[in-house]
Write a structure and sequence with these properties.
Blueprint (H helix, E strand, L loop, with lengths): L13 E4 L6 H12 L3 E3 H9 L3 H8 L1 H17 L7 E3 L8 H10 L1 E6 L2 H6 L15 H19 L2 E4 L5 H17 L2
Parallel strand pairs: 1-3, 1-4, 2-3, 4-5
Helix pairs in contact: 1-8, 3-4, 4-5, 5-7
The chain binds shikimate-3-phosphate (S3P).
Length: about 190
């Protein structure tokens, strides 16, 4: 068994942001394994709390309602620091609301996993639980979202990792190294 490499985060989480399919959940799991920090997957937690799949929430209550649930969860995490602090995997649209961007930055160390739209399209990201990609032309949607949200990810992140061509184990190590450096100066 690989020994864990704990990171001193002073009780604060590490947070992964980026577009659908950029690897937040995969990298989150690896960072969790490496550091011993529990993984908190915001989409999964919202589904559990509401008792509905994301696709069902979008269909029955609308995207605006889902965004409200994301904000409510972030506010809860801000008011109730988790022990031990988690590695948080967010939904790709969490940065759309200005309030969320501030909440994320205040909550912990935020890393943007930036993958080019071209690389994203090579990955199999059109899952039935991604309602925003159930369109005629998912490629157009990815390019549009990347253009619209790129500046928002940049504004929210403390650090950016360009990971289009980086293998997942290496991305995990880089996230951990950046987190160590970030928290060493706090
Ligand atoms: C969304 C991304 C999804 C999920 C929801 C909306 C988005 O999460 O939160 O479908 O607006 O980009 P992933 O990024 O984990 O796929």
């Amino acid at each position: 068994m690989n020994p864990t490499h704990p990171i001193e985060t002073h009780g604060r989480p590490i947070i992964l942001i980026g577009l659908m399919g950029c690897g937040k959940t995969t990298i989150g799991k690896l960072v969790s394994k490496r550091t011993g920090m529990p993984l908190l997957d915001m989409d999964a937690l919202i589904e559990e709390q509401v008792g509905m799949k994301i696709s069902q929430i979008f269909a029955e209550q609308g995207e605006a309602h889902f965004r409200m649930l994301e904000t409510a969860l972030l506010r809860y995490l801000a008011e109730h620091p988790q022990t031990p602090p988690p590695i948080i995997s967010t939904g790709g649209g969490v940065v759309v609301r200005p309030e969320n961007r501030q909440l994320l930055r205040d909550l912990g160390f935020v890393v943007w996993l930036n993958v080019s739209p071209r690389s994203l399209l090579h990955r199999n990201i059109r899952s039935s639980n991604r309602p925003l990609l159930q369109t005629e032309n998912p490629a157009d949607t990815i390019y549009r979202l990347w253009a619209e949200r790129g500046p928002l990810y940049k504004e929210t992140a403390h650090r950016i990792l360009n990971t289009s061509r980086t293998e997942v184990g290496e991305v995990c190590r880089r996230v951990c190294a950046l987190a160590e450096r970030f928290f060493a100066h706090r």
